[in-house]
Each structure stands twice: as structure tokens, then as C-alpha cells.
From TrEMBL:
It comes from Rhodamnia argentea. The lineage of its organism: Eukaryota, Viridiplantae, Streptophyta, Embryophyta, Tracheophyta. InterPro entries: Papain-like_cys_pep_sf (IPR038765), Pept_asp_AS (IPR025661), Pept_cys_AS (IPR000169), Pept_his_AS (IPR025660), Peptidase_C1A (IPR013128), Peptidase_C1A_C (IPR000668), Peptidase_C1A_papain-like (IPR039417), Prot_inhib_I29 (IPR013201). The gene is LOC115752931. This is Senescence-specific cysteine protease SAG39-like. GO terms for biological process: proteolysis. Pfam families: Inhibitor_I29, Peptidase_C1. Keywords: Disulfide bond, Hydrolase, Protease, Thiol protease. Residues 125-342 form the Peptidase C1A papain C-terminal domain. PROSITE patterns: THIOL_PROTEASE_ASN (PS00640), THIOL_PROTEASE_CYS (PS00139), THIOL_PROTEASE_HIS (PS00639).
């Protein structure tokens, strides 16, 4: 009896192995098929059209790699934030960075001369702040495939201080900066610096509205007529003392602040929600705007950051980034090159 029993067991095990192998191959095939279907559905959803079948096949491979990266990231329950399939899922991280960022890290000393910090002695620092709720933040915008994040960041900070001084929230023109501002490092879709943009706005006596000079997403010729009707003015700009999240806190408690960050990683590309905690370095390549701060339900302190990649990215276009980390530069270097425009109180 015993040998027969063993034989039976062997047969069962062998059948199981064969079955398992077949089902693995089958599920792999299903996976490939469904990935193709998912890519088709994704293309329809995002209105993506490729020039030929070869390009489509290449994009499918990138899409598949990205989806697998996103899914395996999310399966790791230890991660405090989630990734998601978004409009950038058919782009490699290199392509994405090349087309979307555009902060030209300030290599020279930042704005020379006496460094004053308006909020040095600020004592009114509430435990949470959300400038959206105070009506100082315009809806999320989308820079498209133009590396002018610096313009979106400077405009969002200018829209903020303009609302705080005049009581009116006016959407302002990034395209005016892209077309007309050649100050310092500023080179339209090829990149720029928020400080140089502020300097341009001071010197050109203001910035016109988004409605008057709408966003095109490509470099253009400066339209002097449109430029001649400014809707918001600033009188100067200041840098937040570098590498101090507590200084940044004092500034963001008082107005939306332009910040430069290292947004180069795939996790940033596909961030979909939660408090982002890295990985990221401090190789500043992207300009965004800190529009608040707070503490999440699980007690994690965060910066509330407005991005310019449309509402399909992150938390309806925003990201919460971990605040008060061990490194003085802040997460992704957020405390390294923060700055804000100043305006005359009216
Ligand atoms: C902060 O307080 C010090 C000491 O009173 C003063 O010298 C400095 O000018 C103040 N800074 C600002 C920006 O008001």
C-alpha cells in the first residue's frame, strides 16, 4: 500500500507542477494581453496618438515598465504614499525630466547685497496653513512639454502676494515670462529661475493677466502690446535663508513661496497621493510653490506644494511633501532656494 500511496502523491505533485507551470505561462500571456489593452484604454483616455506602429510598440514597452514599477511600489505596504498611472505613463523618467522640469539651479551666489528676510521675527505662525482656503491660490495649471516651471512657480507666488495685498485673486501670465523675460538665467521653455522672474516683474512694472496673454507652452516673440497692461505689481523679492525649514515655515505662514526641488525620480513622476517622503536627492531641477503646510492624520508633518503638471498628477495637481526631516536642506532640497515677491500694502 505504501509504495502506491507514494506513487499517487508523486502523480498529484507532478500534475500540480505541470498545472502551475501552465497557469503561470497562461497568466503571463494574459498579463501581456491586458497590458496591451490597458495601453489602448490609456491612449484613448489621454488622447494619445503615435506616429507609427514601431513608436506604439516602443511606448507600450515603456508603459508596461512604468505600470509594473507603480504596482510593485504600491504593493509595498510600508510606503507612506502611493503612485498611480497618470498622463506621463508612456514616458521614461529621462524623457519626462527633459520635457517637464526646467529649473536652472542657481550656481552663482543668490541675489547679492544685503540679505533681508521680512519674516525673520514673525511670531504669528499657525500650526497649519492652506492658502487655497484663504483665496490666494488660482486653480492648477499645466506647463505641458515646456521647461518653464520657473515661470509657473514665480507666477503662483505673485498671484498669492497680489491677492494678499489687493484682496483680488487674478490669474497671471506665464507666457509673458516665457516670451519677454530674458533676465539672468531665464530662457523660456529651456529653463529659468524664479528670482530672475521676480526681478523681471519688478523691472517691467508688473505682469499682465492669463486672459490677456494666455499660455501657449512654446517659446514665442514678446507681445509688447499685451505686456503693456500689467494687472499685478511687486516691488521686490527676497530669499528665504537657505537650509532652514523653520525659516521657510515663517515665510509660508505669511504668503505662498516659490521653492526649488529635486523632482527627478520616477516616484515623483507617478506620485498620486499621501505624504511624499522620497527617495529624492537635492539636485534642484524643478520650480513649484509652497502654498501651505500641516500635519497628516498619522502625525506626519508636510509642506503643501502646488505643481504645474495639471490636475491629473498627484492630489488634484498638488503634492504633500514631508516636512521637518533630519537634513537641513529639507526633503528634495525644498529649503535650499526658496524665495518670495514683496509688494506694497494697499
Ligand atoms: C528683527 O528683530 C531685530 C531685533 O529687534 C531687528 O534688528 C531686525 O531688524 C528685525 N527684522 C526684521 C525683518 O524686521
Amino acid at each position: 500500500m505504501a509504495p502506491l500511496f507514494l506513487d499517487c502523491k508523486f502523480v498529484v505533485v507532478a500534475a500540480l507542477i505541470v498545472g502551475l507551470y501552465a497557469s503561470q505561462a497562461w497568466s503571463r500571456e494574459l498579463h501581456e494581453l491586458s497590458m496591451q489593452e490597458r495601453h489602448e484604454q490609456w491612449m484613448a483616455r489621454h488622447g494619445r496618438v503615435y506616429e507609427d506602429d514601431a513608436e506604439k510598440a516602443r511606448r507600450l514597452t515603456v508603459f508596461k515598465n512604468n505600470v509594473e514599477f507603480i504596482e510593485s511600489f504600491n504593493e509595498d505596504g510600508a510606503k507612506p504614499y502611493k503612485l498611480g498611472v497618470n498622463g506621463f505613463t508612456d514616458m521614461t523618467n529621462e524623457e519626462f525630466m527633459a520635457s517637464r522640469n526646467g529649473y536652472r539651479k542657481s550656481s552663482s551666489a543668490r541675489s547679492s547685497g544685503a540679505k533681508s528676510f521680512l519674516y525673520e521675527n514673525a511670531t504669528a505662525v499657525p500650526s497649519t496653513m492652506d492658502w487655497r482656503q484663504k483665496g490666494a491660490v488660482t486653480p492648477i495649471k499645466d506647463q505641458g512639454q515646456c521647461g518653464c516651471c520657473w515661470a509657473f512657480s514665480a507666477v503662483a507666488a505673485t498671484e498669492g502676494i497680489n491677492q494678499l495685498t489687493t484682496g483680488k485673486l487674478v490669474s497671471l501670465s506665464e507666457q509673458e515670462l516665457v516670451d519677454c523675460d530674458t533676465k539672468g538665467e531665464d530662457q523660456g521653455c529651456e529653463g529659468g529661475l524664479m528670482d530672475d522672474a521676480f526681478e523681471f516683474i519688478v523691472n517691467s512694472h508688473g505682469l499682465t493677466t492669463e486672459a490677456n496673454y494666455p499660455y501657449e507652452g512654446v517659446d514665442g516673440t514678446c507681445n509688447a502690446r499685451k505686456e503693456a497692461s500689467p494687472a499685478a505689481k511687486i516691488i521686490g523679492h527676497e530669499d528665504v535663508p537657505a537650509n532652514s525649514e523653520s525659516a521657510l515655515l515663517k515665510a509660508v505662514a505669511n504668503q505662498p513661496v516659490s521653492v526649488a526641488i529635486d523632482a527627478g525620480g520616477s516616484a515623483f513622476q507617478f506620485y498620486s497621493g499621501g505624504v511624499f517622503a522620497g527617495d529624492c536627492g537635492t539636485d534642484l531641477d524643478h520650480g513649484v510653490t509652497a502654498v501651505g503646510y500641516g500635519t497628516s492624520d498619522d502625525g506626519t508633518k508636510y509642506w503643501l506644494v502646488k505643481n504645474s503638471w495639471g490636475t491629473g498628477w498627484g492630489e488634484n495637481g498638488y503634492i504633500r511633501m514631508k516636512r521637518d526631516i533630519d537634513a537641513e536642506e529639507g526633503l528634495c532640497g525644498i529649503a535650499m532656494q526658496a524665495s518670495y515677491p514683496t509688494a506694497q500694502m494697499v
